[in-house]
């Protein structure tokens, strides 16, 4: 999120409109964040009139009138692949802005399927809200676990690899109530693992309560997955 997907979609639609192309802009109906229902709105509040839908099929009976079909929030369209591919095969120019991954860095599968069907793919990045490097990932700041949770700055921030890993670990730690027997019983017996040892600086930053119990918790490798901050980024290159 915050990488400029909607900004780029709006830029391209306006450019085609300037070239007298008829453009249909579709947005996700479930995104009721903004007063003007259905409009596509960027995080810096640029707006463009759009048609709200829950599925792309809902728009099919009007698509014939347009040259360009632009879809925002493509990750929420359950029939994204089927209709984007069909309209493209019918000669429409189809533009899709979508998240490729969830807040857990899991794939939004239809979006990744579309990558192999598309002629062009642009992956945009935001600025890491913590360290100001390039940010390719989204961190959810609130505790909800469902994949779909509409929100903006109130619930999400863009983070780089290292800051995302660190924030996810901190969320996992803070979600464990140290006084709860169930939290304790789900832990593995403490294992000495060099790579998961907590530093004195990190220990000092933890809340007073339960500080001595933290070493038990971080010995559970499923909870602590933070890579070293020195780890390099993963760069993927696809060749067609
Ligand atoms: N961490 C951030 N990195 C980059 N841009 C940000 C960030 N936080 C807020 N913004 C603002 O968000 C705008 C991009 O918004 P938008 O196009 O809606 O992004 P997306 O659709 O990818 O979420 C930027 O132009 C900038 O003004
Ligand atoms: C990462 C992630 C995001 N969402 C939601 C949050 C926003 O409503 C949209 C993304 O909007 P943007 O145009 O990219 O700013 O998706 C979600 O439901 N689940 C997630 O994992």
Automatic annotation (TrEMBL):
Q: Which UniProt keywords apply?
A: ATP-binding, DNA synthesis, Kinase, Metal-binding, Nucleotide-binding, Transferase, Zinc
Q: Which family does it belong to?
A: Belongs to the thymidine kinase family.
Annotated GO MF terms: ATP binding; metal ion binding; thymidine kinase activity
Q: Which domain of life is it from?
A: Eukaryota
Q: Look up the EC number in the record and give it.
A: 2.7.1.21
Entry's InterPro entries? P-loop_NTPase, Thymidine_kinase, Thymidine_kinase_CS
> Could you tell me what reaction this enzyme catalyses?
thymidine + ATP = dTMP + ADP + H(+)
Q: Which GO terms describe its biological process?
A: DNA biosynthetic process; thymidine metabolic process
Question: What Pfam family is a match for this entry?
Answer: TK
Enzyme's top EC category: transferase
Q: Where does the record place the region Disordered?
A: 187-240
Extract the PROSITE patterns matched here: TK_CELLULAR_TYPE
Tell me the protein's name. Thymidine kinase
- Keyword Signal belongs to the record: no
């Amino acid at each position: 999120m915050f990488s400029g997907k909607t900004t780029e979609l709006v830029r391209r639609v306006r450019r085609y409109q300037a070239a007298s192309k008829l453009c249909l802009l579709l947005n996700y109906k479930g995104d009721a964040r903004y007063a003007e229902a259905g409009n596509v709105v960027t995080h810096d509040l640029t707006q463009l009139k759009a048609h709200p839908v829950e599925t792309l099929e809902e728009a099919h009976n009007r698509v014939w009138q347009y040259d360009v079909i632009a879809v925002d929030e493509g990750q929420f369209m359950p029939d994204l692949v089927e209709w984007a591919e069909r309209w493209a095969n019918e000669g429409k120019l189809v533009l899709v802005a979508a998240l490729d991954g969830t807040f857990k860095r899991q794939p939004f599968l239809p979006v990744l399927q579309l990558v192999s069907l598309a002629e062009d793919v642009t992956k945009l990045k935001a600025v890491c809200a913590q360290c100001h490097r390039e940010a390719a990932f989204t961190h959810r700041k609130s505790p909800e676990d469902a994949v779909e949770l509409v929100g903006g700055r109130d619930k999400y921030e863009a983070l780089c690899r290292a800051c995302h890993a660190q924030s996810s670990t901190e969320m996992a730690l803070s979600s464990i109530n140290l006084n709860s027997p169930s939290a304790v019983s789900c832990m593995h017996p403490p294992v000495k693992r060099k790579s998961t040892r907590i530093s004195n600086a990190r220990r000092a930053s933890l809340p007073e309560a339960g500080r001595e119990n933290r070493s038990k918790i971080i010995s559970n490798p499923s909870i602590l997955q933070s890579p070293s901050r020195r780890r390099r980024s993963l760069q993927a290159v696809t060749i067609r």
